[in-house]
Specification:
Elements: H1 18-30, E1 44-52, E2 55-67, E3 70-76, E4 84-86, E5 88-93, E6 96-100, E7 110-117, E8 120-127, E9 130-140, E10 147-156, E11 159-168, E12 176-182, H2 194-202, E13 206-210, H3 224-239, E14 244-254, H4 256-265, E15 274-278, H5 285-299, H6 304-322, H7 330-339, H8 357-362, H9 364-367, H10 373-377, E16 384-389, H11 397-408, E17 415-419, E18 427-428, E19 431-432, E20 440-441, E21 444-445, H12 449-460
Parallel strand pairs: 12-13, 12-14, 14-15, 15-16, 16-17
Antiparallel strand pairs: 1-2, 1-9, 2-3, 3-4, 5-6, 6-7, 7-8, 8-9, 10-11, 11-13, 18-21, 19-20
Helix pairs in contact: 3-4, 5-6, 6-7
Pfam families: Hydrolase_4
GO molecular function: carboxylic ester hydrolase activity
Protein name: Alpha/beta hydrolase family protein
């Protein structure tokens, strides 16, 4: 149910004019009259800040040359409870350094473009519609990355899935507790989970992320049980790895991944040691879909009568699905026909026509519409941590938490927690918030979120 935004998504904000300054610097550097020879890569540990609308964010960059011509970098934000990311598409063409967080992402990608000036890096950090000024200064040698990566391939039924395993190297453990990371519905590629895997590996967990079975074959949409089978196949692959403590392997999922984790963990036998679900659905898909549509309409200024009209259409459609397509469909047909004459209908997920009985059985949006996630969680017998943001725009987070607290909250070692003002990623969004005294601020993890999660996971992995 996630919309694919990353934890670093800044949302809608104004632009700055700093791009022109960077462009001028690049032109000057590339001029045939500029004279100086090409500089070597600016390896080292850099500290400084990014600034937007007067809001400073402390920033560190560790840039390494792992072998001649091969660069590696990590950008981190000490004020954001240790969040950061490993650089992708990293290039240095003297004097310009450039890298991204999540190339190709529809939202939440972050791009750094900077000019080397001696021990300084000056430039821009861009994400969504924000262009922030970046200033970093070299303070010494780069800190080593505290984990190593190894490619992983494993079988799930007839399929071979490809992934990456991050193995901690900053401790003396021969075998590490491990976690399989599971995607939200909108993000089938492993790169969407890279920042989370980086965080977990820095806290001592071997972290396996992989491309979901539909990553290379869209638009096919796998069912949650199929994804749960893949998750268990990933667990088996970890159990065969000499660097993994096979007794302490857990599942970590965001959005739909939380539901998939419950399905995988709830099967016969103790397949995993613990489960973490971030914004995992606790209500049927029909309820969440209706919630998302109503939120989108209100955000776009729809009149109360229009919201009621859309609500009635969703309710009629749900009754049709519940009857498995049987009975009179005249009223539903008229409702959809009338509704799609309104321009705001495009902001909902209502269909233009009534789905056929075959579509009800084969298309996931209809086949899974009435599934209640509580049924999966009732089968989970290992400790579970369920985390929600009260300002989630993709589901009624408090209702999801209430329903699942009644299923897993009473079990020993299990916790269900809701963070005030936090979104689907358990972040306080960028912009003017109640806690910022009327000033723009950077997105931040909800207070206590990262510490709460890591403390619980380390206890569950003992």
């Amino acid at each position: 149910m996630s919309n694919g935004r990353s934890v670093f998504s800044l949302g809608k904000a104004g632009h700055t004019v700093a791009a022109g300054l960077l462009g001028a610097a690049l032109l000057a550097a590339c001029s045939p009259d500029s004279g100086p020879k090409a500089l070597p890569p600016p390896t080292g540990h850099f500290e400084g800040r990014v600034t937007y609308q007067g809001a400073d964010l402390r920033t560190t960059l560790d840039l390494r040359e792992t072998r001649p011509g091969q660069l590696q970098a990590d950008l981190r934000f000490p004020d954001l409870q240790g969040l950061g990311f490993p650089a992708e598409n990293l290039t240095f063409k003297s004097p310009q350094l450039r890298f991204e967080r999540q190339p190709g992402a529809k939202a939440g990608n972050l791009v750094v473009e900077a000019i080397r000036e001696g021990d300084f890096l000056r430039g821009l950090l861009t994400t969504d519609s924000v262009k922030a000024d970046l200033l970093l200064v070299r303070r010494g040698k780069p800190d080593p990355r505290p984990y190593r990566e190894t490619p992983v391939r494993f079988r799930s039924g007839p399929l071979t899935l490809a992934g990456t395993l991050l193995i901690p190297t900053a401790d003396t453990l021969r075998r590490h507790p491990a976690v399989v990371l599971l995607h939200s519905s909108a993000s089938p590629h492993q790169r969407a989970l890279r920042a989370y895997a980086d965080l977990l590996a820095r806290h001592g967990f071997a972290a396996l992320l992989y491309d979901r079975r539909d990553a290379a074959r869209p638009p096919a949409i796998p069912s949650p049980p199929e994804l749960a089978e893949d998750a268990l196949a990933a667990v088996q692959a970890l159990k065969r790895n000499a660097a993994v403590d096979s007794v302490h392997i857990g599942l970590w999922g965001i959005g739909q991944g939380g539901h998939v984790a419950a399905l995988a963990a709830g099967g016969p036998g103790k397949k995993v040691a613990f489960v973490v679900a971030v914004s995992g659905p606790g209500v049927p898909l029909a309820t969440a879909t209706r919630f998302q549509a109503m939120a989108a309409l209100r955000q776009r200024g729809a009149a109360p009568a229009e919201v009621r009209q859309a609500t009635q259409a969703f309710e009629q459609l749900e009754r049709y699905v519940r009857r498995n397509g049987q009975g009179d469909t005249t009223q539903l047909h008229q409702t959809l026909q009338t509704l799609w004459q309104q321009p705001w209908a495009a902001f909902t997920t209502l269909p233009r026509r009534i789905p056929t009985t075959t579509e009800l059985q084969t298309q996931p949006r209809w086949r899974d519409l009435l599934l209640d996630p509580r049924a999966a969680w009732q089968q989970v017998r290992v400790p579970a941590l369920l985390l929600y943001g009260a300002a989630d725009d993709q589901q009624d987070a408090r209702e999801s938490a209430r329903r699942l607290r009644g299923v897993v909250g009473y079990r020993r070692g299990s916790v269900v927690r809701v963070y005030a003002n936090a979104n689907h990623e358990i972040m306080l969004p960028a912009g003017v918030r109640p806690d910022t005294d009327g000033k723009w601020d950077w997105p931040r993890p909800a207070p206590g979120y990262i510490d709460d999660m890591m403390t619980w996971m380390k206890q569950a992995a003992k």
